[in-house]
Write a structure and sequence with these properties.
heterodimer, A: FAD/NAD(P)-binding domain, 5-stranded parallel beta sheet, 5-stranded antiparallel beta sheet, B: 64 residues, Alpha-Beta Plaits, two-stranded antiparallel ribbon, binds flavin-adenine dinucleotide, binds iron/sulfur cluster
Chain lengths: 392, 64
């Protein structure tokens, strides 16, 4: 997604030169959020999730089904898995994340799933048949969304997770508890403060053993325990890659010695940057608006610098990059909408509505609002969005 | 020239992200439901393109 958005932004800001996009998936860029929600509940196809292609980016050279295996920043080259070496004037890293997996003794079984790619969703959809018994490890957003979708499809669902309540980080105890209650009302069983010690089955998974020793029978086992950044292909270039790609405020990559690589940028889930709306601490933000917002910044800065247009470059850099993190989540008839970085809060308060119905929570750090999240009541949630706008 | 806008209301979840990009075209009504103007002047094109980008459900299209 970030790759597509950078190409679009480069064109919008006047860059007319060649653009090559290397992607290891066989498909043109598509939208991931529906893969755990409405699309998973119906029919999963590329057509249902593909991003629209725009005339301005028709001449982008899409090198799909091809993996970048290494980069040499000193020579400005990227090597792909066919052995081809691509030279660049500027490189944008938009390789996103991959799901974490658990390592267990009896792990090599069919019926194990994750949800990140279209292929993942197609494979999972085929096994979410009515009456199937599903165990989901992980009660974050994706785990909860898949639980809701699987219930909708008539599956029996048990969620196993180490936390006290689902999505307790970043939602906070009150909202997380209520979320659990609503899931339970829909028939989802929870094994919180638990983990999976091993899988049961020969060839195909037939159950899981929890760390408590309890055994749960299942036909499908889904791992939704977070993700790791895809950065290994950048090794050997002295970049700071301890958690994604560390960047400055223009999303230019930073080396371990703190120096900036002028012509290498990172966008989307993989980029770790400080957001002046909150503080100077660099963070990765796994929200859907970040690829688009970061790509816009990169497109503007890079188009100006490739054109040698000092005036446009100064104008681009004049305003700090300060995206407003936003996310949403659909589970049953529950629609969550949030702005800000909820996870930073040291205090969480109900500010509107009732917890059993539609409600809005405010998230505060040292008395200052750092996030807002609502179930329903979108206009109220939206009215707080300006709190996260950097003063001009 | 005018442009025609189409929102697939079977997809739209009324998140109102579009409202921030093209406030003259999109708004949430008092029921928190999306309302929009189906025709706009070409000068709005950039804003509408931005709204298309930020729509989580990818529900907005320009029909030429
Ligand atoms: C199931 C699901 C539901 C989600 N729901 C929501 C939601 O409701 N709200 C929300 O705000 N966010 C949601 N997100 C998060 C959102 O989709 C991501 O933030 C967004 O997709 C990030 O875009 P990206 O371009 O950074 O990464 P990606 O979209 O992951 O793109 C990275 C691409 O790079 C490819 N790649 C990786 N390594 C290489 C390599 N070495 N060579 C070539 N190609 C490579 C990957 O295969 C992938 O195609 C969800 C994500 C998932 C998976
Ligand atoms: S951003 Fe998309 S989903 Fe949200 S209200 Fe606008 S059209 Fe509907």
């Amino acid at each position: 997604m970030g790759g597509l958005r950078v190409a679009e932004a480069l064109r919008r800001f006047g860059y007319a030169g060649p653009v090559t996009a290397i992607g290891d998936e066989p498909h043109a860029p598509y939208n991931r959020p529906p893969l755990s929600k409405e699309v998973l509940a119906t029919e999963v196809s590329h057509e249902a999730v593909a991003f629209p292609q725009r005339p301005a980016t028709e001449d982008v050279n899409w090198v799909l089904g091809t993996r970048a295996v290494s980069a040499n920043l000193a020579n400005s080259t990227v090597t792909d898995d066919t052995g081809l070496v691509h030279e660049y004037s500027a490189m944008i890293i938009a390789t996103g994340l991959r799901p974490k997996r658990i390592q267990v003794p009896n792990g090599d079984l069919q019926g194990r799933h994750v949800v990140r790619t279209l292929e993942d969703a197609i494979a999972l959809r085929a096994e979410l048949i009515e009456g199937a018994r599903i165990v989901i490890l992980g009660a974050g957003f994706i785990g909860c969304e898949v639980a809701a979708t699987a219930r909708k499809l008539g599956c029996a669902v048990t969620v196993v997770a180490p936390g006290v309540h689902p999505i307790v980080r970043p939602l906070g105890t009150d909202l997380a508890k209520e979320l659990q209650r609503r899931h339970e009302e829909q028939g989802v069983a929870f094994r919180m403060k638990s983990s999976v010690a091993d899988l049961v089955g020969v060839e195909r998974v037939t159950g899981v053993t929890l760390d408590s020793g309890e055994q749960l029978d299942c036909d499908v086992f889904i791992e939704a325990i977070g993700s790791d950044p895809n950065v290994e292909w950048l090794d050997g270039n002295d970049l700071e890659l301890s958690n994604g790609v560390l960047t400055n405020n223009d999303l230019q990559a930073i080396r371990v010695d703190g120096t900036v690589v002028e012509n290498v940028f990172a966008v989307g889930d993989v980029a770790r940057f400080a957001n002046p709306v909150f503080d100077g601490e660099p963070r990765r933000v796994e929200h859907w608006n970040i690829p688009t917002d970061s790509a816009k910044r990169v497109g503007q800065v890079l188009a100006a610098s490739l054109a040698g247009d000092a005036v446009a470059l100064a104008a681009a850099k004049n305003k700090p990059f300060a995206p407003i993190p936003s996310f949403w989540s659909d589970q049953y008839d529950m629609h969550l909408l949030a702005y800000g970085l909820l996870g930073l809060a040291d205090e969480i308060r109900l500010i509107e509505g009732q917890i059993l119905g539609d409600c809005v929570f405010g998230y505060y750090r040292r008395g200052q609002m750092v996030g807002v999240c609502g179930i329903g009541l979108r206009s109220v949630v939206q009215s707080f969005r300006k709190e996260f706008q950097l003063e001009a | 020239m005018t442009i025609k806008i189409d929102v697939d209301m079977t997809k739209c979840q009324h998140y109102g992200q579009c409202v921030f990009e093209a406030p003259d075209i999109f708004r949430l009504n008092s029921d928190d439901k999306l309302e929009y103007t189906a025709e706009a002047d070409d000068s709005e094109r950039a804003n509408i393109e931005a709204a298309i980008d930020v729509c989580p459900m990818q529900a907005i299209r320009i029909v030429e």
